[in-house]
Design brief:
Layout: H1 4-25, H2 32-39, H3 43-49, H4 53-71, H5 73-76, H6 82-93, H7 98-114, H8 118-145, H9 154-173, H10 181-194
Helix pairs in contact: 1-2, 1-4, 1-7, 4-7, 4-8, 6-8, 6-10, 7-8, 8-9, 9-10
Keywords: DNA-binding, Repressor, Transcription, Transcription regulation
Organism: Lentzea pudingi
Protein name: TetR family transcriptional regulator
Length: about 210
Amino acid sequence: MPRPSVEAERKAQILASTCKVIAAEGFRHLRVSDVAKDAGVSGGTVHYYFETKRELTDAAFEHCFKVSVTRRRWILESDEPPLSRLRMVVESYLPEGAETVEAWKVWAELWVEAIRSPELQELNERFYGEWRDIVASIFRDGQASGDILAPGDPVELANMMVSMLDGLALQVLAGSKAMTVDTMRTTCLRFVDQLSTANAGQPGPVAANAPGIG
């Protein structure tokens, strides 16, 4: 049997390849053989660590989340003022660069499949709960220090920012000409900048010709 350190490394390698295949081919088109080929192992090796395809994909989603948070741990632990940390969060999550774009595509696949899968809904709920708590903690720090003057529940403010990042990133990934990475950056950073005023987070007037769905 492989040493524990080797097993952990091999398992992480398989999960990274699974995320890569999900991003490239989609959740429903994922084949264990493709994962094995990308990881440079046999299909039997994949099944040694993950008995079923669902076990493999669930673990891959969790791996993607943990890697995403770990890559940004320096932001969360930074001594920079809360508003600066929120700006860094925005910059870090813009869908540019191969690694970040791949992660966004994996999340998009999770969201689509979770609509029909209670099991994936539970995964999404747990991951989103943890991510929301992380962002809310930055808002909470900012309100306590006076860096953020926007009133309201830090969790609600975190929901505003997280939903903004998610929604705009999906538009960028979908190739929207109106929503480029630069436009997304400008929009999200403008929201962060408004947090230093007392009326941030309050609904503003909606233009008569504002686009919508429905």
